[in-house]
Write a structure and sequence with these properties.
heterodimer, A: 663 residues, alpha+beta, 9-stranded antiparallel beta sheet, 8-stranded mixed beta sheet, 14 helices, 45% helix, B: 295 residues, mainly alpha, 13 helices, 0% strand
């Protein structure tokens, strides 16, 4: 290498870096070829048995913004951003409104990809769609409510899905999150009932940016559930979408989280980084070509991986804990005296017969709602509406490709300019040395300098043209989007109206059939007093009562003066936990659980203890105090493992132990 | 059992009432010597069963001829009644243990010939007067059907399968037949109770077990009826719902104006192209200014 060229190249590298910093090398809106979910999750068979009348998974997504909530939603969408910050002046401007609307439209469409993948992996009629309407609550706070009855039945997991776009179109070619053309940025949360994962507030997996919202939503839902029990209700507690809780900036409690791995730790929430997924351009180009059929570009890059992950989570889950309150809530709609008894169960013949009938009713409702979801899918995905959304995606893809081409040109021009400057600089440096430049060299330098100016001018021009293309697109497409969303809502509304009318009719007939066929229950569930480990505390019990106090199986909740609260599922005597039980303690900063035997309201025996971020441990408790490791070979007495209502809870021995003690 | 004696199998029987022929049943007679040697209740019972089984073994040798004789007395008026009565016979033998058959032999009185029409046998069991006045005859008639259904099980199954093969719809009313069978079994249990069977030292346990199995059967059949009703409701509502939603989807989708979107996209392209050309022109002008061309 010549002694002249080397310094030039070194200078070139330095100047190129400087130029890149100065001009901002235009990004070409790149994305990941695969979601981390696809690399972590492998296809697996669902091994968990579906409890009767239970939904395996509900896919929840924003489908509609109520007129009264629009301003608030657009404003928060512009302020509470993910992946970057916006000027406060940007919040609520027309462009933000358009982008927020597109977010809703894309969420509607891509949620169906996830629905399709989950339905392929799970039993028939066990996956439902739950479109949500974004509304204002009575306090003027943003919230969301399901538009159908899909969440009225117990479900094992719910999956919140949204396709996010950063609310500044000018930055669509940069690193900010985008759902446009062949780029999709999913925000997702997989949650279960908090009783099955108390340490994480029921959240199993979430996109990292909305972690706080998901956890806060989980805590809110748990708190509302306790309020309902205090009112004597087991039903009607559907959490809002996590994205809405994120926008509201609700303060969460502490949970322990880790990046998603193939072997997640117990009591630890898995997080996914924000991912801009790049879909197959070829598939998008071939959209709506009849011979190609309807292709799903998200499936191979994201949805299949997420569905595999959900199956894995369900396989590892304690289904009883995940569904017991939802199941009891659904039963309470037509048999209140039975509902709370189902939390723990019983071997009593009357009870068994009655729950069998009740579960059959839930199965009928499940099938009914499943038909609704399948038709929603059919109407949107396979109908004209889906074709139109694909038209939009295709048009967006073309826009994005043009902008990419311009960005590449801009980068090339910027590079040429820098190189020219470098060359000129080298020449000048050389000129300042011992030898003088020739006329020819001087002309060459002038040409390079002019070329640099030309290239710089071109780069600037490409940048402006690139930005205009996106802005023009938004400006022209937004009115058409309004029509899209309103048609989509028409479809859901119509669906909901038809099902609601028929659903009511069906429910009434089911109720009549149920009432005709039922035998009396000897033991019924009612509401009465519940006492914790100290007599000064008082709470509410739903279950078997005697003399106004908890006496048998059921659920109790109570609140402490310091703001902490406690849920207890199991057996009680004289108002206090007594016998096998599962206690969830909601502290001020986090939640832990104790499962095992209770005596006079206190943990007493071998207990399974779950704490945030730690693996479950079995410890020996005496009178509520941890006194050391559990003796080897001693199991935990769970209220859910055996279905014998103890005659005397004090002397309760589960059947397996009775057998072991027999001579 | 709440239901009245009105379901179609039994109604058919009542419609075809024939005189009851009651004959003493010859099998199941006990030999007091062997049984008398037993020292405990369990020994007594086992001895009884041994003896009973030996009688059954002997009976099996001439089983084929007996089965054919009894089957020839089943209705021949069509596939449906024939299927119904074979199915009823099969359902009547549910939960019948050897111990219970021994008890039937003990408490049944009256000889039922193999040539007695099955309709007569069922009518006798269902006869309310006989139930009250002579429960032992009811027991004997039930023992006759149960014995036939168990001993001739291969033939009964064969008949049912061949009838179903010829007409698959025959099985659609199985639940009603099961309800009738349960009703008759309940009569049998009541009759044995009237005869003091439940407290019998030898047979009490088997009779009580049968009585308990009736509760389970009743639950199963009642639930099957409920399940059937729900199935019907589901079929009605789900088909209706699916049709309505499909029509609604079609209407809404057909109202979508894809041209609006196409226009918007085209507009966007036009604006972009114009802007592109303007920007190009501006770029050329800038370059011209830089290079001093034309100035």
């Amino acid at each position: 290498m010549s002694r002249y060229i080397k310094p030039i190249l070194l200078q070139g590298v330095a100047l190129l870096s400087l130029a890149t910093l100065a001009t901002g090398c235009a990004s070409t809106a790149t994305g990941l070829s695969q979601s981390r979910l696809n690399t972590i999750s492998s296809p697996q068979k669902l091994t968990a048995d579906l409890p009767p009348g239970t939904i395996m998974a509900v896919v929840r997504y924003p489908a509609f913004i109520d007129t009264a909530a629009q301003d608030k939603f657009y404003d928060l969408y512009g302020r509470r951003t993910i992946g970057g910050t916006t000027s406060s002046d940007d919040a609520g401007v027309a462009e933000v409104r358009g982008i927020a609307d597109i977010m809703v439209l894309k969420s509607n469409y891509f949620a169906l990809s996830l629905f399709k993948e989950l339905a392929e992996r799970m039993p028939e009629h066990s996956v439902l769609l739950s479109p949500h309407a974004i509304k204002l609550d009575a306090n003027g706070r943003l919230t969301s409510e399901p538009m159908t009855q899909a969440e009225s039945l117990p479900n094992i997991v719910s999956v919140d899905f949204a396709a996010y776009t950063f609310p500044d179109a000018k930055r669509m070619m940069e690193g900010e999150p985008l759902s446009f053309g062949d780029i999709v940025t999913p925000l997702v949360t997989v949650r279960t009932d908090h009783r099955a994962s108390a340490a994480t507030q029921g959240v199993l997996l979430t996109s990292r940016p909305i972690l706080r919202g998901a956890v806060a939503n989980g805590r809110q839902t748990a708190a509302q559930s306790m309020v309902n029990i205090e009112k004597g209700q087991l039903d009607g507690n559907v959490p809002e979408l996590d994205f809405i809780t994120f926008l509201n900036n609700t303060v969460p409690v502490r949970v322990v989280s880790q990046n998603l791995t193939s072997r997640p730790s117990q009591n630890t929430l898995s997080t996914l980084p924000i991912e801009k997924i790049k879909l197959s351009g070829e598939k998008i180009r071939n959209f709506n070509i009849p011979s190609e059929g309807i292709t799903d570009p998200l499936e191979e890059k994201y949805s299949a991986g997420l569905a595999n992950q959900v199956v894995g989570l369900v396989n590892q889950m304690d289904l009883k804990k995940a569904t017991m309150v939802g199941h009891a809530g659904a039963i309470s709609q037509f048999d209140e005296s039975l509902a709370a008894l189902t939390l723990i169960g019983s071997t009593d013949a009357d009870y068994q017969a009655r729950t069998k009938y009740a579960d059959r009713l839930l199965e009928a409702e499940q099938k009914y709602l499943s038909v609704q979801s399948l038709r929603l899918f059919d109407g949107v995905y396979n109908g004209e509406l889906g074709a139109q959304v694909r038209d939009i995606l295709k048009a967006e893809y073309d826009i994005l490709e043009k902008r990419r081409a311009l960005a590449r040109k801009q980068n090339l021009s910027t590079g040429l300019a820098v190189l020219a400057t470098v060359a000129a600089g080298a020449a000048i440096a050389s000129q300042s040395g011992s030898s003088r430049t020739t006329l020819g060299e001087q002309l060459a330098i002038n040409a390079l300098i002019q070329g640099a100016i030309f290239s710089g001018s071109q780069a600037f021009s490409y940048s402006r043209r690139s930005a205009n293309i996106g802005n023009n697109y938004f400006a022209s497409i937004i009115p058409a989007l309004d029509e899209q969303i309103s048609v989509q809502v028409d479809l859901i509304d119509s669906n909901e109206t038809i099902t609601a009318i028929r659903y009511e009719d069906l429910s009434a007939k089911l109720q009549t059939l149920y009432d005709e066929k039922q035998r009396a229950l000897d033991v019924v569930a009612t509401r009465c007093g519940y006492v914790g480990s100290g007599a000064q505390k008082s709470g509410t019990w739903m279950g078997v009562c005697e003399n106004g106090l908890a006496n048998g199986a059921g659920v109790g909740v109570l609140r402490n003066l310091d703001g902490s609260a406690m849920e207890y599922y199991g057996y009680a005597e004289n108002g206090q936990p007594q016998g096998p039980g599962y206690m969830i303690v909601h502290g001020l900063t986090g939640t832990h659980t104790l499962e095992g035997n209770f005596q006079n309201g206190q943990a007493d025996g071998v207990m399974r203890v779950s704490n945030p971020g730690k693996s479950d441990v079995t410890r020996l408790y005496r009178a509520g105090q941890d006194v050391g490791s559990a003796p080897r070979g001693q199991g935990v007495m769970s209220p859910f493992d055996n279905l014998i209502v103890p005659v005397s809870p004090v002397a309760f021995i589960p059947p397996a132990r009775v057998a072991a003690l027999a001579p | 059992m709440k239901r009245a004696f009105t379901s179609f199998t039994l109604a058919a029987v009542l419609g075809l009432c024939l005189p009851v022929s009651a004959y003493a049943q010859t099998d199941g007679q006990t030999d007091g010597v062997q049984i008398g040697e037993a020292q405990t209740q369990d020994e007594l019972y086992q001895a009884y069963l041994r003896e009973k089984n030996s009688v059954n073994t002997t009976a099996a040798a001439s089983g084929q001829e007996r089965c054919i004789t009894i089957m020839s007395e089943f209705p021949n008026s069509g596939a449906l009644p024939r299927y119904q009565f074979f199915k009823l016979s099969e359902d009547l033998a549910v939960d019948t243990t050897p111990e219970f058959r021994a008890a039937l032999s003990q408490f049944g009185e009256g000889d039922i010939s193999d040539t007695t029409p099955i309709l007569d046998v069922v009518e006798t069991i269902a006869n309310p007067v006989l139930r009250q006045a002579a429960p032992e005859i009811v027991v004997a008639n039930m023992a006759h059907i149960i014995g036939f259904a168990q001993d001739c099980n291969v033939y009964v199954t064969g008949q049912l399968q061949s009838l179903q093969a010829s007409d698959n719809s025959l099985a659609q009313d199985d639940i009603l037949i099961a309800e009738d069978a349960l009703y008759l079994r309940q009569i049998l249990s009541d009759s044995l109770s009237r005869l003091g069977g439940e407290n019998d030292l030898t047979h009490g346990a088997a009779i009580q077990a049968y009585s308990r199995s009736l509760i389970v059967s009743r639950d199963v059949i009642e639930f099957a009826g409920f399940d059937n009703d729900i199935d019907d409701l589901e079929a009605l509502y789900l088909t209706d719902l699916d049709g309505r939603l499909a029509r609604s989807n079609e209407i809404i989708n057909s109202e979508i104006n894809r041209e609006t979107l196409g226009d918007a996209v085209q507009l966007s392209k036009d604006i972009s192209n114009t802007a592109n050309q303007q920007e190009k022109a501006r770029s050329v002008n800038t370059l011209q200014r830089i290079l001093g061309i034309g100035y």
